[in-house]
Structures are given as C-alpha cells and as structure tokens.
Amino acid sequence: MTVNRVTTTILTALAPVSWGSTYFVASELLPADRPLFTGAMRALPAGLLLVALSRVLPKGAWWWKSAVLGTLNIGAFFPLLFLSAYRLPGGVAAVLGSAGPLFVVGLAALLLGERARLRTVLAAVVAAFGVSMVVLTAEAKLDLIGVIAGVVSSASMGAGTVMTKRWGRPEGVGPLAVTGWQLTAGGLVIIPIAALVEGAPPALDGKAFLGYGYMMLINTGAAYFLWFRGIGQLTATSVTLLGPLSPLTAAVIGWAALGQALSPVQLAGMALAFGATVFGQLPGRGAKAGEGKAGEGESEEAKPVAAAEAGSFSPAKETRRNLSMDLGKAQV
C-alpha cells in the first residue's frame, strides 16, 4: 500500500473508532428510551454547522440525492442504531453492525463492479465472528425488536455507503459540504417521526448537554466527514471492513471506563477481529504497489474514468483541493 492510502485508511478508521463511544455515551449521559430524539440531536445540528462552514447548497439532482443518502446513512440508520443499543445489553447491538461489510460486498459487486473476492468475504466473516466472541457473553440476552433494528440499520448503512460511492459528489464541491447535506437531510427525516412517536423533547441536564455536544461535533460531524472522505478514496468494501473497529472500541471503553472485565475469549476475539480488519485493507495478490484492483485497495471506480460514468469521488489530490475550497468559502 502507498503511504497516501495508509494515511487515508487510518484517518477513515477514526470514524468507527469514534462511533465505538456511542454505546458508552448513550447509556451513561443521554436520556433513556429516546432513540429518535437522540438521532435528531446528533445529526441535524452537525449538518447545519457543516453546511454553514462550507456555504454550499445542493443544486439540481443533488437535492433528492442528498435526501436519499441522508435517509440511508442517517435518517434510518441513527434511530435504528439507538433503538438497538437501548434494547440490547452491552455491545450486543454492535455485533449486528458487524454484518454491514457483507451487505456492502454484495451491493458493491452489483452496483459498483467491485468483485466479491474470497479474501474480502473471509475477512468480513472472521471479523464478525471475532466481534461476537467479544460481546456475546453468557449474560447477553437477545430482544427481537432490538435484533431486527440492528440488522436493518446495518443494511441501511451498507446501502448508503455503496450509493455514496456510486454517486460521488458534484464537481468542485468538497466532502465537507456533502457531509453537511446528508446530516441535515437525515436529521430532518428523523424530527417528525420523533415528534409523532416520542412526543415533546425531554428535559436535559448538564450530562445530556455534554453527551449531545460530543455526539454532534466529534461522533457525527468530524467522524462522518472522515468516513465520506474515505469512501471517495478507497473502495466501498475497504471502508466498510473498518466497521468492526467500532465494537472493539466499545469493548475497550467498557473495560477502561466501566470496569468491565475482559475474559481470555473476549481478548482472543478482539485480536481476531482486529487482525481480520487489517487483513481486509491489504492489497490483493498481484496488485502493484500503490495500485489497487477492483475490490482491492483503490478501485477502478475511484479513478476519473468512473467519475464520468457514475459520478464517483475525485482522486485524493482533488479531494484535498475541494476541502480547501470548502474552508476558503467559509472565510469569505
């Protein structure tokens, strides 16, 4: 792998690492049983902030594309994620999210032409198995609604990842703006549902404000910017194979902050899942250094040829230029 790809992978990995703290923050700081309100509070303020910083609004087809992507990645995903987290104990919800790479492998093969290689599927299955060793303890009990919510949220995020890669972003628009569009659209989808299902917003104390502030700025705004930026420069399957870092981070936080013990089986599962995640980022056999094949490393659809064909993200140099453009407009 090239230095640039390693750097991009590490930066992208910070997103699921940040998301691993969601389970701790939701259980320790946020109001109980308010997943829809929590999803809206996490998405909409962050989206509006990023749109304000970029000072760029969607044009033409990007109004409905942003609505679709925002619904898949945010509007449906957030409420289902929190519903699963509230109804399932510990990190059980996280193991359901580890099925996401399998959804992405199938959809990427169908919509992006990324070949579903055996090593990619193997990495996804082994990572999911390792995560299950970490979180599926004897005390864990499964709730049907929580399980369904977890699986559907994983499928929604998987579809959103693939469609984000397929549509890319408008020429001359940086990832900051596109991230803001999606977060805003997703938050607007959640608000009326939250009002209908949960009623008036709950009273918030100091802990809740702290939790929502962290969720909005770090766990959502910054994390999703890095995630969508990574989708632009890596294959969809490479990005989604970083997902298991989220439950692994949750387990580490549970051990460090909540005093939860980690058994030898859980430690072995963490090593297995982490190893599979790293394995999934390695270039395939026969790939030249710094050059990826479809389904491995930097895919064909990440190149300019596919940009004209499917509206995919521009290459790394153009991405950095567009980010500078975003920030430059914010200072005008």
Descriptive notes:
The chain contains 16 helices and no strands. With 332 residues, the chain is mainly alpha-helical. Helix 3 runs antiparallel to helix 5 and helix 7 runs parallel beside helix 9. The longest helix has 28 residues.
Rg over CA atoms, rounded to whole Å, is 19 Å
Silhouette: globular
In terms of per-residue confidence, which ranges show pLDDT below 50 for 5 or more consecutive residues?
Answer: 286-332
Helix-strand sequence: HHHHHHHHHHHHHHHH
Q: What is the distance, rounded to the nearest whole angstrom, between the alpha carbons of the first and last residues?
A: 38 Å
Q: Helix count, per DSSP?
A: 16
> What's the count of strands?
0
Chain-averaged pLDDT: 81
> What summary fits the major beta sheet?
none
SS strand fraction: under 5%
Percent of residues in helices comes to: over 70%
Structural class: mainly alpha
Task: List strands and helices in order, with pairings.
Blueprint: H1 3-19, H2 22-28, H3 35-54, H4 62-75, H5 77-87, H6 92-97, H7 100-111, H8 118-135, H9 144-167, H10 175-198, H11 206-233, H12 236-240, H13 245-258, H14 264-281, H15 304-310, H16 316-330
Helix pairs in contact: 1-11, 1-13, 2-11, 3-5, 3-10, 3-11, 4-9, 4-10, 5-9, 7-9, 8-14, 10-11
Output the keywords.
single chain, 72% helix, globular, mainly alpha, 332 residues, disordered C terminus
What's this entry about, in short?
The chain is mainly alpha-helical and 332 residues long.
